[in-house]
Amino acid sequence: MVYAEERQQAMARLVAERGKVSVNGLAERYAIATETVRRDLSVLERMGLVRRVHGGAVAPNGSTVIESRVIERDCANAAEKERIARAAVALLPPEGSILMIDAGSTTLRLASMLPRDRPLAVFTRSVPIAALLSGHPRLELHLLPGLVRPTETAAAGADTVAALDQLRVDSAFLSTHALSLGHGLSTPDHADAVTKRAIVHSARQVIVLCDASKLGQESTVRFADISEVDVLVTDGRIGDAERSSLVEAGVDVVIA
Question: What is the pTM of this model?
Answer without folding.
Answer: 0.75
